[in-house]
Design goal:
heterodimer; A: 296 residues; mainly alpha; MetI-like fold; 2 domains; 15 helices; 72% helix; 0% strand; B: 311 residues; two-stranded antiparallel sheet; 14 helices; globular
């Protein structure tokens, strides 16, 4: 027993020194990282506090705590344009939800074919699909616009939603193929033995087993559609059909940057859905990025 | 018992060989049908049509009129805004991507030391990545770097009178670079995942041999991480070429002041939907495609000289 106690004290000085040094490095790193975190978050927190500030204070205060808290900016911003932000939020919400449904359905159908079905030309089409990942959307932009113009769809949400039902976001097909390939083949082979059709295997076996990847695809689709500015900018012409992003841009243009707190209030509200996903599905998002390298 | 008697793929109903082949292929093509419609109708078809349009004069109202290579000739010889947009875009890509990746790698390495609170730090650093492309953030940036914005209010505390960053052509593009670097979160997460793959015993062996941390970084970490660096660099560069929203919001859609934030995509948008020069914009789009393709090909060709693969 005494031996044990003794060994504790006879550790070579080098090791004690090394541990001390390591602890210092670790403390220093924490200080640096906390500092970096504050710098990273400061603009966001400042915008939040600015939305509660009296207007005249916005361009002088650097602190995060307003001298007096006022909620006025929220209703002022909400009704600041001739169409209220409720309409914009509803439009964004509808477009995003429909896009999620389209993307998840269409991409999982294609991914199932690529991952599990045998058919002539599979590798060829798979390579083509990967090739479309690299294609900048500008190359298809103008003919698509002409097409939708001729269909009478410009000014409606259809050009933003319908393509999602045709699996144009090849990235998600790739994501799902990777996941489907990880599901043990014995499961669907057993189902085949029992005479299940390909459709039933897809619907009853693959989809239920793939909830994590479907959720990842759904969340990223929602966030990207919600944040999309370019698509709505081109296709939505009537203010009543505007999304939140377009509403914010109109706000900047129409108030000539005179109502900053109203603008910040609406900006904060526009971030809430994304922030919600960040809070509750962070693990899915981070795993999705770490395993597949999603760009954002 | 019946299952053993018919070992053929049960995706396929019994029947003649031809019917079986048809049905086997049929299932695959049925599942791919939505993608095929999208691929031919919205991707491949339009891409070819825009290649055709790039050789025409087209304003949406009248039929496209074939003008040969005139659009390309004008772009190459007589379009100062094209030159400006190329300069702005390349400057932005070449500055923002390396900075962003360096930051991402630095923070990832700091976090990879088994730090306490890793999930917190990771979440905080990732948040800007997720929010960054929305109009709200661009609006915020416009205030931060305004003449009387938050950044200058801070600088004033130290007696520095900052310029109006946004409306000064010397600085406006840098504010967009800062915005891009601020979003280093997602490459950081990819770097973290890559760092985890490096076996710890390599470092232990190197330590025993007396290699310094600095040397370990250059001789172990970086070489083993090159596939991840390569991946991040390609993805982020393509994304940077396509950036649009921040430049649009910060410059009010003009690309100003004096074309200093005229991103290529913004110039293309103005030509197409501001002036309705659809043929000219199609030519610009194809040039963008060629630039991105050349860059990607270049990366893959040089990859063999600097990207380290296990096998």
């Amino acid at each position: 027993m005494t031996d044990f106690a003794a060994t504790d004290d006879v550790r070579p000085n080098e090791i004690v020194g090394l541990e001390k040094r390591r602890r210092w490095v670790s403390v220093l790193l924490h200080v640096l990282l906390i500092g970096a975190s504050i710098v990273m978050l400061y603009p966001l927190l400042w915008m939040l506090s600015a939305s509660f500030r009296p207007e005249e204070e916005i361009f002088s205060a650097t602190s995060l705590i307003p001298s007096s808290v006022s909620l006025d900016a929220y209703p002022r911003g909400w009704f600041g344009l001739r169409v209220d932000f409720g309409t914009f939020f509803w439009n964004s919400f509808v477009i995003s939800i429909l896009s999620v449904i389209g993307n998840v359905l269409a991409c999982s159908l294609a991914a199932f074919a690529f991952a599990r079905l045998k058919f002539w030309g599979r590798n060829f089409w798979f390579a083509i699909m990967l090739g479309t990942l690299m294609l900048p959307y500008h190359v298809t932009l103008i003919p698509q616009y002409v097409l939708f113009l001729n269909l009478g769809w410009v000014g409606t949400m259809l050009p933003l939603v319908v393509p999602k039902f045709m699996a144009v976001d090849a990235f998600f097909i790739f994501l799902m193929v990777q996941f489907f390939r990880g599901i043990p083949r014995e499961l669907d082979e057993a189902a085949m033995m029992d005479g299940c059709s390909a459709w039933r295997i897809y619907w009853r076996i693959m989809l239920p087993l793939s909830l994590p990847v479907l959720a990842t695809a759904a969340i990223f689709t929602f966030i990207w559609t919600w944040d999309d500015f370019f698509g709505p900018l081109i296709y939505l012409t009537d203010m009543r059909t505007y999304t939140v992003q377009l509403g914010l841009r109109s706000f900047v243009d129409s108030t000539g940057l005179s109502d900053w707190s109203g603008l910040f209030a609406m900006s904060m509200l526009s971030l809430i859905p994304v922030f919600f996903f960040f809070l509750f599905f962070q693990r899915l998002l981070i795993e999705g990025i770490a395993t597949t390298g999603i760009k954002r | 018992m019946t299952t053993i008697a018919s070992p053929a793929s049960p995706y396929v109903p019994t029947g003649g060989r031809f019917a079986r082949a048809l049905s086997r292929n049929g299932a695959g093509y049925m599942f791919l049908l939505p993608w095929f419609i999208g691929f031919f109708g919205l991707t491949a078809g339009p891409a070819l049509v825009s290649l055709y349009l790039s050789f025409t004069n087209f304003d949406l109202l009248t039929e496209p009129r074939w003008i040969g290579t005139a659009n390309y000739v004008r772009i190459a010889t007589a379009d100062p805004r094209f030159v400006a947009s190329i300069q702005v875009t390349f400057f932005y890509v070449l500055l923002s991507v390396p900075l962003k990746l360096a930051f991402a790698l630095l923070v990832a390495m700091a976090l990879n030391r088994g730090m306490k609170g890793l999930p917190w730090y990771r979440a905080i650093f990732y948040l800007p990545s997720l929010l960054g492309t929305s109009v709200a953030i661009a609006v915020l940036w416009r205030q931060l770097f305004a003449g009387n914005g938050l950044v200058n209010s801070f600088l004033a505390n130290f007696g520095i009178q900052g310029p109006s960053w946004i409306s000064n052509p010397d600085y406006s593009l840098y504010t967009l670079v800062v915005l891009s670097v601020w979003q280093f979160g997602s490459p950081m997460i990819i770097f973290l995942a890559g760092l985890r793959q490096i076996p710890q015993d390599m470092y232990e062996a190197a330590s025993l041999d007396g290699a310094s941390k600095w040397r370990q970084f250059w001789k172990i970490t970086l070489p083993l991480l090159t596939p991840v660096v390569f991946f991040n660099a390609v993805v982020q560069t393509i994304e940077a070429f396509k950036a649009f929203t921040p430049a649009f919001i910060i410059s009010g859609g003009t690309g100003g002041p004096i074309n200093s934030t005229l991103f290529y995509t913004l110039y293309l948008y103005q030509e197409a939907f501001g002036f309705f020069r659809m043929g000219y914009a199609s030519a610009l789009a194809w040039i963008l495609l060629v630039i991105v393709a050349l860059f990607t090909a270049f990366s893959f060709l040089t990859a063999r000289y600097w990207v380290h693969y296990d096998d």
